[in-house]
């Protein structure tokens, strides 16, 4: 095993297989959902491979997360870590920025996702959610995953960039589906390929967003993009047109993809666990049985918090996170060279038996104050990241999911239809196999 030297000491490279020349093990990574699990069993919690044209180290466990997200944060780059497809399709947005550029822009975006802005979003969220619930009741049987994707995209597009419901929002949603299909595919831009369609969808979205930004600059609004257009840093500088376009694109992407995955998992779990649902119904009946919901009422729903945390753990909306290694380092006794790519595994961390009792069992009580299993080790629940770069829209997403849960559970019931694939597949985010087919109806 090749040895490397750091600070006067010699360390081996991680075990593993770099695969074929150029391609490495990329095709296996894209096609085999058990790719990482198989190699974890063979090599342990640190191993090397070759993905998307670069030698890659894959790590798992809370210690690895803490190493990457906290103690050795400056050794890794977001922009240099995510594959070419992410950089081309999502642009130089907050997601792919580092250092001072990221700190400055995160601070500028923060007001749109916290504090007073959240209160302004509640009524619109409730109106959209109620409309979708009524439509699903009329349809009777639905492919819920795809319906949820439409709903969360409409919420994101209306609240974040001020779109209106209708044909335009439907078209934007279709373009986003085409864009996200290109995030985990070979970046071959030949006509007719998935990646070529993704690039065209990106351009259409950016052209639309540019027009919206120019309108907001002339006529300020209270949606998130309107707030971004008006915000200034300490020196009085605002975001440029190009910055506003890519940040808005990121807001739309992050504002509905992970939320869709979480809500689909939540709904499936409640169909399979009636006792959990009964406890949620009791909590909602005691705190907010009818009418509009307040942030204070949502904060009081502690069991709903536990269930959502367990959904995040058991069905993490994103399976892992990429980083680029900008300084050589050592983890677990292995040398990780500068210029390599790193992938930390969220899904495997959430099944770590050192942290979670019977991790293969869905159990919201593991997050109760009495047990608080995620407090045993730092960075053991990282479905939305951790440390200084925890997901900026996490509070927005939590509020949306809780509002949806309350309105759903107050009046509606659903049953899973037989003979369907209930597995969830990690692509850009976790996607449902059959689309979560259900019979949906009102019970009071």
TrEMBL record:
The keyword Transport does not apply. SUPFAM superfamilies: Cytochrome P450. Heme binds at residue 391. Its cofactor is heme. It holds the Pfam family p450. Coiled coil: none annotated. Gene3D superfamilies: Cytochrome P450. InterPro entries: Cyt_P450 (IPR001128), Cyt_P450_CS (IPR017972), Cyt_P450_E_grp-I (IPR002401), Cyt_P450_sf (IPR036396). The keyword Metal-binding applies. GO terms for biological process: sterol metabolic process. Belongs to the cytochrome P450 family. This is Cytochrome P450.
